[in-house]
Amino acid sequence: MCKHNSWSDQYRRRRDAAKAFGRIFSLPLVKRVRDVLLDCVHDHARVLEVGAGDRRMGELLRNRRAGIEYRSLDIDPIGDHDYHDFAEIENRFDCVFAFEVVEHVAFDDLPGLLTNLSDAIEPGGRLLLSTPNTYYPPAYLRDASHRTPLCYDELAGLVAGAGLEVSRIVRVYHDPLFRAFLRRYAFGWLFRLIGIDFARQIVLVAVKPN
Q1: Which one of 1-15, 24-38, 72-86 scores highest in mean pLDDT?
Q2: Any idea where the domains of the chain sit in the sequence?
Q3: Cβ distance 128 to 36 under 8 Å?
Q4: Which segment of 3-7, 43-47, 149-153 scores lowest on mean pLDDT?
Q5: How do strand 93-99 and strand 46-50 relate by DSSP bridges?
Q6: Do 17 and 166 touch, CB atoms closer than 8 A?
Q7: φ and ψ at residue 160, rounded to 5 degrees
Q8: How far apart are CA 144 and CA 133, in angstroms?
Q9: Per CATH, which fold does 7-207 belong to?
Q10: Do the beta carbons of residue 202 and residue 139 sit within 8 Å?
């Protein structure tokens, strides 16, 4: 961990996040990550996607929000992206999002990544991050390229360490109605008893102070 993010500071921020947002089962459920994104992006917003892959979120935003200025950053040299490194970015954005990215980064490198993300955001703008829910182990363990399991309060502490204010954390869960009923209601008590969640992802939203 970099020198301006000591272990004691990170522990304090993590504890504060757990106190503010409660236990994992207290976090609200949403059906899709994109629902959170659409809540945060307004018409004519300037948006940067980090780890953009096939840029499908850009198409979603163009179809659902008028006048969007969408840019993408990805380290893959083959992809048709606007940037391949943060050093290439000269302007700031109203919203920056990185879905299923942070778990691929070594823990000691996360403060630097989050600082880069914060630097790309306009004051008053938002950062959105998604990552596998550590309370649902298969979501993290199924991919050998995952390097850092991030509990929701751990991630919130790191984001706060980058100077951002965490405003929302949700769990993502979408299953057919019958299966959802069994997991959420019929066996919900059992999940809580053994400390295992059925939601596969978490999404965090943070705001850059003015």
Answers
A1: 24-38
A2: 7-207
A3: yes
A4: 3-7
A5: parallel
A6: yes
A7: -60, -35
A8: 16
A9: Rossmann fold (3.40.50)
A10: no
